[in-house]
Amino acid sequence: MSLFNIFSISGSAMSAESLRLNTTASNLANAQSIGSSEATTYRAKNPVFAAMMQSLQGDNVSFGVEVKGVVDSTTPLETRYQPEHPMANEEGYVFLPNVNVVDEMANMISASRAYQSNVEVLNTSKQLMMATLRLGQ
Question: Structure pTM?
């Protein structure tokens, strides 16, 4: 594996963690939004990642993180009886998103630490490449 592959591996991981931070921010922003039905209420979103590792034979070696997509959470929505609320349905219920704020905060911290770790990998790789170039002086 070439030292140059480290840049693409860390770059793909940083891109994936950036998407994870964006979905977490979206979930936190909509944590208190209210809907009048299950269909119109916000559902928590979660990115799906996969390890990307192609053939080790030949020159087309590719590693990293692949974002498979963003899926909606299947956790049931919370219903609350508030007949006076303008968004209440005909039975007097409003629907709250299935966003767990504590889980989202933990997810945000984890994504931010993973992003920082990949930045450190890039910095260390750059320093190693520079040290290798200085050997020839």
Answer: 0.83
